[in-house]
Amino acid sequence: DSCRLCVHHRLHPSFFVTKLWSYFIPVPPKAGTKRSLERLYVSSGYEVAPVVGAILRHPALYTGPRMVKSPALYLAGMLRGLGRGIDTEAWTWLLQLAGQQLFYPPNVAGWDDSRWLDTATFRARWEIAGYAIRPRVLKESAKHVPHRPDALVDRARAVFGGPTLTGQTEATLTHFAERAMGDATARWKKEQYPPLIENALRQLLATAPDLQTC
Fold first, then answer.
1. Over the stretch 150-167, which tens digit does the pLDDT of each residue have?
2. Nearest 10 degrees: CA dihedral of 115, 203, 210, 214?
3. Is 83 left (phi over 0), alpha (psi -120 to 50) or beta?
4. CA torsion, points 160, 214, 21, 106, in degrees to nearest 10?
5. pTM assigned to the model
6. Could you say which DSSP state residue 213 is in?
7. I need a labelling partner for 144 at 20 to 30 A (CA). Which of 20, 39, 84, 109 fits?
8. How many other C-beta atoms lie within 10 A of the C-beta of residue 68?
9. Rounded distance, CA 191 to CA 200, Å?
10. Proportion of the chain in helix, strand, coil states, percent, rounded to 5
């Protein structure tokens, strides 16, 4: 009876559609879209899958503003790109610092998706990125590392499985690599700087907006 009273409440379809939509698109649906999804939900016998499918096919998912990933989603995507599994318990306390300890939400409503980033939680994400790429950090003596800034950026992208970057992010990373290589005037610097620059590019790429949002 409790479930029936909730599901058949006149405001339930509106609440459900708005809540589900917010998990995929950060701005509320337009009135017409919302009514259409509500009708689909009710006519399908309160099935969730058809509504999810309709949201995934909606243009707003692809043309609307980007959403900040939750810490768990951010970490999972990074590990998948790196081809790395769950091989350390460090992710537990790192995710907690980032604001999302799995299976321990702050209350029955769950985590507040609108407050994933602040100065403290971003520092935790920086630490997550560092831990994620730590097993693949290049030594100063690494061989066959290119000296061209654009090649160093391409190698850093390849480490994460070649994620798509905005032109601004790619230009910023390339500019960083150019300036860093420009400081390599001595012979020993020309030999040791490229691996160090690539390590820095990996860290910067891992914490760039392109990987922080979806």
1. 999 999 999 999 999 999
2. -50
3. left
4. 70
5. 0.82
6. B
7. 84
8. 18
9. 16
10. 65, 0, 35
